[in-house]
Write the structure tokens for this entry.
Amino acid sequence: MLKKCLLFLLPIIFFASSSYAGYKSEYKLSVVVGPTGPWGEAAAKFASLVKERSGGRINIKPYYSGQLFSGKQTNEVLLLKMGIADFALGSTINWSTTIKELNLFSLPFMFSSYSELDAVLNGRVGKELAAIIEQKGVVALAWGENGFRELTNSKRKVTKPADLAGLKIRVVGSPIFIDIFKSLGANPVSINWSEALTSFQQGTVDGQENPINSVIIPYKLWQMQKNITVWHYAIDPIVFGAGKNTWNSFSQKDQEIILNAAKEVAAWQKAQARKGLDKIGESLNILRKNGMDVVVLSGKERDAFMGKTGHVYEKWQKEIGALLVDEAQKEIIKSRGK
Ligand code: X2X
């Protein structure tokens, strides 16, 4: 009897253990920033949650500061496709040279509040974008957030387009940003994030643009640039993504574990990215306490910048796909009425 039982159990034991045996001993997670701040911390949280819930079977290791893409941050989607990275917490900006529809979030002055962004991401456009990302070989598990991108510089207070004249501004190597800053009269230069800090320290560039909680505070940019203009000119969602081959190698149960962990951590991360960012918010006070001159643009001041970038919007709307942009605009307008 015992022998019979064992014979019956053997294939089950074998099958169960072989599905784990097929798993890698380490899954690489790509992150462009360092471990400090909501973005980097989310990577560690995601890895530890998956490890805990899978009973140690799935071991994800975050590779911070763009270690996996040897400097070129716009290569991240290719890394996932090729299996050099298994997962990424990737900025839509870094992915937008490979997936042109993601330039939607960089259209100048398109989004002005979190509720507008939520309406777009939680609605049809968000689903369409996830499907487009999947066609490129990456499964989009959840939307996190880097944040609204604000302008800092070491030269002067910026409240109107003329203040930007001639300022050398570091931007990511995604062409829409070159177009935007040129149209504002600045002198944009593409520099990878891994080299950007040195250029700020050495003063070879005058300014840059990045979100407050996820980048400006953790990297203490006030040490190099004292002026900040809060103008919400672009928003930067983060995709919690998995390479398709890696994803398909997991059992259904493990896919569920990973998906749920991604959703939970993305929600936490988004909340951290937004914390204290209203006018009298804690985050702006942190900047002031560290000697920054904080300018929050009024609606009218913001309109002046928007007016200068109209043709950039027109050009990139076509690149992204007018239908998709139109759909997003409709969601935004609808959300304003709520
Ligand atoms: O390079 C940047 O500015 C950063 C860190 O925000 C991105 O990865 C888009």
